[in-house]
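Many groups now describe folds with learned vocabularies. In that spirit, our science desk offers one protein's residues alongside their backbone shape tokens.
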Amino acid sequence: MAKFGVSERLACRVLGQHRSTQRKIPTGRSDDAALTSDIIALATEYGRYGYRRITALLWAAGWVVNVKRVERIWRQEGLKVPHRQPRRGRLWLNDGSCIRLRPERPNHVWSYDFVEGRTHDGRKFRMLNVIDEFTRECLAIRIARKLTSTDVIDVLTDLFILRGSPGHIRSDQGPEFIARAVRQWIAVMGAEAAFIEPGSPWENGYCESFNSKLRDELLNGEIFYSLAEAQVVIESWRQHYNTVRPHSALGYKPPDPSAKAWPPERAQPTTQVAAAWQTSQRCIKLCCFHSLRPIRTMKNLLKKALHRFGAHKSSTAAAAITNPQKEDRAENFFYQYRNFSIELPSGHMLPFYQEKYKKYDKFLPHLAKYIEKDRTVIDVGSNVGDTLASMVDVNPLLKFICIEGDVEFFSILKRNIALMKEKYPSLDVCPLNELAGNISNVSLVGEGHGTKHVRINEFGTEGNRSCRTLDELIEQTGSLNIKLLKSDVDGFDYDVLRSGKNTIKMHQPLIFFEMDYKSDAQISEYKRVVSWLLSEKYVDWTLFDNFGEIIIRTKNIEDVFYLMDYIHRQNQGVANRTIYYLDVLCANINDSSLVDSILGDY
């Protein structure tokens, strides 16, 4: 304006600008500096994420910000925007290729593929990636120097038991996938193999996309000095991918936000085992590939941790872990379980399992909703009443007979029943401090396990504690209208059921019991009881894993025996698996429609 001697109005009219642009000094928002700092921090941590995925992470962190504002700051700071992949045209095939198979629901279509990597010494390792195409969740990554068709079956076996059989499994025509053993095994399990056309990896687009993210975000930026390190780092990334990483196809939400990363956080344990607990956390971090095969109990994990770091030399800590129930009652604690605050002994595993497994101890309270009022539930092996509390919470009009042989657990059980009656004064519960069954051979299981702990460890010698049959105990209470018989006595459930034959014949209840066995003798006893129940028209069998997930529902007793043998091989150490025992729901032929309703809503 000064150069040409024109007015502001004329200059702005010629340039097409509003006059306010010459007067108002632009000022940024007050939170621009903090937002820019967070964007740079996230871009530094997740170097291959674009601004859209960074925006989703900002939302998750509590920022209320528009994606366009993030893009402006992103470009202003010169951050790298990943290149877009070129678009591909759709394939229209006339031969029924699996390109037409589209996932419609979770567990409908899985896909798997191999990815190759190298350790620092140049040696190759392979990864078998399995994903659910509908949820985009990575179900498993198996890592080894060599993977064959046997390993493919091994991975799928674990996933089928944990999650059930999918409708289809999509893969290329690699030799590990087209092997006759794999195809026959998939067919027997009720799924279908969907092979893509040779030389057409884009037909397996979901898995190929996942593979590219794995390589781009992890493999290309990591140096693995050993196979164990690769297993640890890749499994950690898989957990991050499932639970944290925003996925663009899911509205920038992670595939499985409800999943828990390993190791789960836990409240501080009692003072006697606090040092051992801290040691176990370090052990988990060093050996977190065990998350592929969850450890049976925290007690065993603590023993391993103590031994690894030399803390097993401390007799006090070792004694606390070997016999956590023997700790002073002052160290008992209260745990908010559903609508009750129940007392638990120090070292009780309920809080840990509740946190780690979404469906742990969820089925029995679900089942209780379907039992008519004034019917009776027999709970053999009531422990401290945690299962009782879960069923009372949903159906307080039922009648309960709780049988527990451990004296300490029984005293806590009575106190917890008193707490429940404060909320439900009319609650009908009959507690019995008895050992149910015959238990003719307690040497079938290891020392300190289940009923043998009660008979030997607590009383010093085998035989100081007599047992009574379930029929005698039921007759003593005069119970009628029994609808559910639940048994959980750690390895002797077959004996409980066998001692209650008259009760089962008379009332024909739903039966929910645990199959936990360590020897050939035990599994033989369980098979005899299963065969006897079949002769009593118990034809509907539903099997659960030890995490509460349904494995299979069948009317073919051979399926039950097959899974029993599978778990037995696992416990014998032939293969490392994730399932340590089975929970079984068996129903009389007249209750099949009731089971349909129960499982359909579960």
User: Anything to note?
Assistant: The radius of gyration is 30 Å. Confidence is low (pLDDT under 50) at residues 87-99, 258-330, 440-450, 452-464. The first strand starts at residue 109 and ends at 118. DSSP finds 23 helices and 15 strands in the chain.
